[in-house]
Amino acid sequence: MVALDFNATVFMQMFHFLLMLIVLRLVAYRPLMNIIEQRQAYIAGEIEQAESQKVQAAELKAEMDAGLQKARDEAKAIVDRAVKASEEQAQKILEEARADAQKVKEDALADIQREKEKAVAQLRNEVASLAVLVASKVVKDGLTIDEQHNLVQDAIKEVGQLPC
Amino acid sequence: MAAEHGHEGNFLEVVHHDLNIYHLPKHWDLGEFMGYPIQLNADTIFFTWVAMAVCLLLGWVAVRGANIRRPTKMQCLFEMLLGFLGDLIKQSMDPKKGAGLFSIVVTFFLFLSVMNVMGVVPTYVKPTADIQTTFAFALITMTLIYAWGIKYKGAKMFKHYITPIPILAIIEDIAKGITLAFRLFGNMKGKEIMILALLGLITGWGWLAGGFLASTIWLLFCIFISLIQAFVFTMLTIAFVGSAVGDDH
Question: Which of B114, B128, B85 lies closest to B237, judged by CA?
Fold first, then answer.
């Protein structure tokens, strides 16, 4: 049923195989392998590029972070300085105000004292003149010694009672 | 037993004859060469040409419109095949030694797959169901083993023919070629006989249960066997060449 006699078909088939090998190599494998290689090269290039970009991005980020930190420090310094200056100024204003108030108070007290002294002096003058007036009246009417003495005592008491 | 055998043969030959709608003769006679007749098995040669045309068509479709970014479907299939076989070669031997083997191996797989699967098309005859084809391919594999062995190992290639046990390795090498040829041939011939037998059963009353259904399932299974056998042949070729160029013996 199954014949195993060989004839020229064997060689013909070998020739067919070689023909297919040569033709398919030219028609199919070469172009496809080229495309695969190109794709591999493309992907490898892309990966390399991505990696270098990643490194660049990391560098850029570090740079940015440093800049940001610097800016933050500067801002903090500025704020600190401003706070310190304002506090000093406030302190200064307060001290000035206090000094002013003290001066005003001292001035007022001095005025009061002066007025008081002035008033006392004026009063003394008036009391003296009044005493002279009274004395002149009494002298005119003639006083006893006792009466004179009482009068003087009263006058002194009155003067002592004057509000000054 | 003999009579039964003859009857079965006749039955298959009848089906075979009925399916030969292309009226191919059994042999093409191309005269004589030094007294020997030059004969070609007509159906084998004819359907080998068909298979070659199919292979070329597949290759052309794969390459047509092929590009880097958006591979076409056939391009994807071919790239997978090329990558897969390339990896197999790399695993079996030094890539530098395997580089020249690559196209040959891919051609083996593609050509054998197409020739094997062709058998499931009704009226088609698979060239691999002819011992001449499988023997031719096994001869090519043997040639590859010796070519690669001599190229990379020189005379050391033949050292194991003499030591440690003489003759044994020679028998082993001959057996390699013969088993390669007969494994493929046996599978494909068996497949063909099964197909023909099942087709022959599609007559009379029991055609649905006996012939048609079984035939359909068998044809599906045939596709699987065909691809497996093509792969086995390819894989063994790689393995044999790999062991011939390897440094381990």
Answer: B85
Residue-wise pLDDT tens digits, B224-245? 989 999 999 999 999 999 888 8
Distances (CA, A) of B71 to B62, B65, B85, B107: 9, 8, 19, 21
Q: Are B74 and B61 in contact (CB under 8 A)?
A: yes
Q: Under a CB-based contact definition with an 8 Å cutoff, are residues B79 and B63 in contact? A: no
Can you say how many angstroms the Cα of residue B141 is from the centroid of all Cα atoms in its chain?
12
**Residues of chain B predicted below pLDDT 50:** 1-7, 249
Residue B202's pLDDT is 66
The per-type count for chain B, helices as H runs and strands as E runs, is: 8, 2
Closest by CA position to A9, among listed B113, B47, B114: B47
Cα dist. A132→A101, A124, A128, A142 in Å? Answer: 46, 12, 6, 15
Question: What global pTM score does this model have?
Answer: 0.69
Q: Determine the pLDDT at residue B2.
A: 35
Distance, in angstroms, between B147 CA and closest chain A CA? 15
Top residue of A19, A20, A38 to mutate, by most chain B CBs within 10 Å, is: A20
Q: Write out chain B residues lying below 8 Å of A29, CB-based.
A: 82, 102-103, 106
Domain boundaries defined on chain B: 2-245
Q: Tell me what pLDDT residue B142 has.
A: 92
User: For residue A132, is pLDDT > 50?
Assistant: yes
Q: How far apart are CA A8 and CA A5, in angstroms?
A: 10
